[in-house]
Amino acid sequence: MIPSPASIRAARPRAGRRVASVVAAVAAVAALAGCAETSSAAEPASVAPAAVSSGRASAPAVPKGATQALQWYGFTNGPAGFVVPQGLTVVYRIDQPNVVTAFFAASEGPQLAAWLAAQLPGMGYHVQGASADSVVFSGPAWSGAFTSDSKISALTLRRN
To answer: What pTM value is reported for the model?
Structure first.
């Protein structure tokens, strides 16, 4: 069937509207991408995989059952005096002046949650809530949370 001139004229505005919609959508995505680039450039983040074997070989010996400061795991930021049990496996870290996050092996989650709930008060932190797999706490200069599931566990500390 050959379209009539009237149906061709009626179809043109719809096609024009579709083109305008597509152009508007592309412009919106480009604007959002520009904003994302600007914000990430304004605040560069230091995100690095944790050094596992090479970092541990040069670390000083710590007695079994002792604790280690976050700096031992390669962090340059974070609260002074904050420790975790020795021998944890840090699989990834985010190290920024205002927030640090350590990702641990999932298998260490439940034990680390229990350890943190018991030890945080001795480090000057108030435990606001705790369960078998998570802890939320606050302190005078830093606050934080720990959580875990079957795939990974993570400890985040942020400046107040």
So the answer is: 0.61
